[in-house]
Structure formats: C-alpha cells, structure tokens
Amino acid sequence: MPLAVRALALVAALAQVPLETAVADLKSPDRETRLRAVRLLKETGRPESVRPLLPLIGDADDEIQYEAIGAELNAFLAEKIVSKRRVGGVFEVRNRVVAEGAFSAGPFALGADQVPLELMSALSSTVPDGNAYVGLEALYAFGALAPNAAPRELRDLLMSAAPEFAAFVGASEPVQRVAALRVIGRVYARQLSEPPTPAVVGDPIVTALNDQDRLVRSAASAALGTIRYERGVQALLELFQHYRRGVIAEELLDALARIGHSAAKPVLVAALENGSTALKRAAIEGVARLSDGAALAAAEESLNRDRTDSVRLARAFAAAWLGRGGLDEIVAALPRTALRDQALGYLIELAPGRAAAFGRHAQNPDAVIRRDIADALGVSRDQAARPIVDALARDPDPRVSQAAARAVTRLGAVGRRPS
C-alpha cells in the first residue's frame, strides 16, 4: 500500500476516536497527547469541544495554542475546514485553518451557534502572546467570531480590552498593525445612532494614518470609516486635500463618507460634480448619510452623465436612505456578482429600523436574494426582523435556512446572556 494511502487511512482511523477520549486527552501532561487531541477536535469542528478546549488557548506550547485557536474557530464555521498536517511523514494536500482567512471571508462564514463570552475573553487575552504568530491567530479569530457573540457581553469585553487593542495598533511589525486595524474596524463598527467609539481606540488609528507602511495607512482609513470616528475627520480631510485624486484619495473620501460628519460636506459635494466614479460613489453615500437631498438634486445632471453600475446603485442607496424608494433596485443587484458586495453592504446599513420594508423581498423566488435578506436582517439588531427571519428559517433551500438560523441566533442574542 502506498505511503500516502496509508497516511489517509490513519487519518480515517483517528477520526473514529470518541469525543470523550479526545476531550480527556486535552488534560494530559504529555505534550504529544494534548497536541493530538487538539488536532482531532479541530478536524471534527464539534460545538461540544468548545469549552473543553478553552484552557489550551493559554497552553505553554505555542503549537498547541495555535491548533487550539483553529479548533475553536472551526467549531463555529458554517463550512468546516480540515487542517494541513503531517501524518506518517506525508503532508496531506488540504487547507490549513488560518484565522485570517476566516476573518476575510466575512461575518456570514459562521454557522448559527452562539460564541460564548469565555472564548472571546480567552482569545483577547492571547492577542499579546509572546509568540507574535499565535497572537495574530487569536486576534483574527476574535474578529471572525465576534458577529456571533452576544452583543451586550461583547460590548463590555471590548470596553475593558480597548487599551490592549489600541496597543496592538502600534505593534512593531506592519502585519500586526494591519491585523489590529482590520479587526478593530469590524468589532468596534458602529451605526450612526450609537455612542462614539472610545478615544483610547480611535486616537491610535488616527495616528496610524501617517504610518510608513502603505497597507497600514489604508487599513487605518478603512477602520476610521467603519467605526465612524469623528475625531479623525480633520486628519482625513487634510490628507484628502493633499491627494485629491487616485486610490488613496478614494479610500480617504470613503472613510469620510461613512463617518457622515458635516465638516466633510464641502469635499463630498465637490466630488459629486468632478470626482472619479469611485469618488462619486463615496460622495453620494456620504451626502445621503448627511440627509442632504438638496445637494444630491443639485448634482443630478452631473450624476446622470456617469452611467456606471456602482454609481447608479449608490444613488439607489441614497434614495432608500432618504425614504424615496431605491430598495427594489438594491435587492435586484444581489444576484449580480460584480455588485453583490456593494448591494449587500447597503442592505446591512439600511436594515436597522426598516425591517418591514424587507418583508416582501424575503419572499423573492431567487434563493440568493432570500439568503442575503436573512443575513442583512440578522446583523440589524432590529427585533422587528424576527418574524421575517423566523419564516426564512423554514425555507426549503438550505442556503436560505442556514442564513436565517444564523440571523435568529444574532437577533436572539440581543439583550440576553448566552446559555
């Protein structure tokens, strides 16, 4: 029998080890026994292993820590990932669980299980680990799992952990700084109606706008936009006035547009008339968030000359934000690959307080649309969405019912402690 075949046979045999045995082996004083147990639980991705694995996130052995983080993450992914490891001297050709990949896949890569606060706390405590690689895994895993944590408990944890996150923005390696900024941008993201982000988190991001590394500066700009940090508006404006054109200027204006502060109105209005397609799109969104329909109307002739799909969709978002229709056009863009991310982002932003308007679209014959409606409502924190997602949870299409189950978990977690 070829060596590779024997290796795969060994993996299959190991997979038959009872969960109870693997869990018991997590407490073994023998390093190899613990490592083998963690890897077996990582392969299965079982929710029952989440709490038994918690102590291993703080294990003295770096490799066990790393594998434990991957095991915890895999337990919550909608599609389980198996690890790439050496068995019998042969590397299996399979994907390794890497937290950054799960984070980049977005909040809808998770299943429906709620993430316990104990796990989120263990991951945040591991971010400053002496091994930078382990710390990065913990940081990205924290960001990846945050959408399924109970909002109130997560908010309290984020308040207490704010200094640690802020300190990581000033880490020695650019890859660490980028990771911190990306994760902060997600977990501290706020709606316009919510209280401002703490200065202890926001101010270091403003400083990072002047980082020597281009990727760090880009991540800082994006984070300021998603956390809607008003204390960063002046710095963003000064940088935008310096660049005015190009990718960097587009990133800066997008951040200003997301923050929605009146100080940015002059540059937003100017971009409506003379900006590139990307600048116009950001400007339309920003002026809409300022609820300035008159400025949009004044620029209508210029906007009509831009026939790109992204600008037309941005105008639909502005109409929907201002209560003048537009939702149908956004929903219709969901099945179009080139526009889906933009359209879904708009639905996520529009959903809070507008759940009733989504009801009709939740009955669309296209399963892709029903799935995206469920996901958008799931992150809305709007309890008025519950009847809609409850109905979608009974949808015959598994993609839709899975998204709806995830939405039910997220809406059900609002204001309640996890069991």
CATH topology of one domain: Leucine-rich Repeat Variant
Report the major sheet.
Answer: 2 strands, antiparallel
CATH architecture of one domain: Alpha Horseshoe
- Looking at the chains present, what oligomeric state does this protein adopt? single chain
Distance between termini?
49 Å
Question: Which band does the percent of strand residues land in?
Answer: under 5%
Q: In what order do the strands lie side by side in the largest sheet?
A: 1-2
Number of helices: 25
Percent helix range: 55-70%
What is the class of one domain in the CATH system?
Mainly Alpha
Envelope shape: globular
Name the helix and strand elements from N-terminus to C-terminus, one letter apiece.
Answer: HHHHHEEHHHHHHHHHHHHHHHHHHHH
Uncertain stretches of 5 or more adjacent residues: 3-14, 86-95, 414-419
Q: CATH superfamily membership of one domain, which one?
A: Leucine-rich Repeat Variant
Mean of pLDDT: 90
Q: Taking Cα atoms only, what radius of gyration do you get, to the nearest Å?
A: 23 Å
Tell how many strands the DSSP assignment holds.
2
Report on this structure.
The structure is a single chain. This protein has a two-stranded antiparallel ribbon. The chain is built from 25 helices and two strands. The longest helix is centred in the middle third of the chain and has 19 residues, at 151-169. Helix 3 (31-44) runs parallel beside helix 5, helix 11 (199-208) packs antiparallel against helix 12 and helix 15 packs across helix 16. With 419 residues, the chain is mainly α.
